[in-house]
Amino acid sequence: MALTIEYFMEATASSPVIPAIKNDEWLMSCKDAECDIVYIIYGDICTIADIVDSVKAMGKMAVVHVDLISGLSTKEISVDFIQKHTKADGIISMKPMLIKHAKELGMFTIQRFYMMDALTYANIVKHVKSCDPDVVEFLPAGLTKIIGYLLEEIDKPVVASGLIMDKEDVMGALKAGAFAVSTTNRGIWNC
Hints:
CATH topology of the domain at 5-135: TIM Barrel
Number of strands: 8
Oligomer: single chain
Helix content: 40-55%
C-alpha cells in the first residue's frame, strides 16, 4: 500500500501523534506506538535502508527526513537514493528542490518549516504553492495561533512539531487545526 494523503489523514485521525525516531533504541520503542506512520530522523547512507526495513517490518509507514541522513547531500540525487535503495514511503525535507523532485518521482512529501518570523510565514505560503507538498509541517508546535492563519492560506494538511512537552501541547495543536503532531517525546507517543 502506498502512502497517500488519504491514508495519512486516516492514520493521523485515529492516532494523531507521529513518532519521530532518532536512534536504534527509539526504533524499537516505536513498535508499540499507536500511529501507523513513523518519521525517521537519523541514520546514514549505510544504515538507512535497514532502518526503513525495520519500521516496515513493524507494519508501519516509514517517512525519511532526508536532510538529517548523514552522507546525503542537499541535491536531488539524495531523493533518488532514498527511492531506489530503500522502501521508504515518503520523505520530509526543508529543501524546496528536494520536495519538487520527490513529487516528480511520485513520492509522498512532507515539507518542513521552522517558524521564526513574518518572513518565514510568507515563505511558507510561497513554497507550498510552488512545491505542492502532500503535507506541510512546521516547528515549533506551540504556535497554535499561527496554525489557524496558515490553514486559511494553504490547502494542505498541517503537522505541528517541535517542543511538544505534554498532552496539553498535543491537544492545543490539534484544537488549532493541525491534523497531527510529530514528536521525539516518547512519553506522549500514545496519548
